[in-house]
Amino acid sequence: MSIDISQIVITIAVICIILWRISYGANVGLVAEAAGLIAVLATFASVYFIMGITENVLDKSFGGIIPKIGYLIVAFVVYRVMTGIGESLRKMKEVPVLGSFNRILGAVLGVIEAIAILYLVEYITGIKLLTVLQAAWLGLFGKIKGLF
């Protein structure tokens, strides 16, 4: 199995994004990370509706634009509200028992959010980020397994 340089670069970028979200999730905790995840889902919705708006503009079907703009505004409001809630609940990490548990679950949720972000980038650009990462990891584990 040969791996070219573009696969290595994509794999490094994907790993950096995943480590960034794990670190951020462990730092802010579960509640703030959950708010961030809901914000990412609102971003998914906004991208979906933006794609529909541009399709209606290109087809000159302006009657379908108004409801989609409304949905886009709602997605943006949900994003802002959830990030605001996450910011306001950061004080929860100062409680000793809840703080540690909150950080661990925040890191787990950070991984989920990183995968969601990568899927969104895949959806928009068409570049297969997760597939390249999966192929690289399977190749690595296959070589490690071959050593034993």
From TrEMBL:
Its main location: membrane. It is found in: Membrane. The chain crosses the membrane at residues 6-23, 30-50, 62-82, 103-121. Pfam families: Colicin_V. Keywords: Membrane, Transmembrane, Transmembrane helix. InterPro entries: Colicin-V_CvpA (IPR003825). One of its GO terms (cellular component) is membrane. It is a multi-pass membrane protein. GO terms for biological process: toxin biosynthetic process. This is Membrane protein required for colicin V production. It comes from Butyrivibrio hungatei.
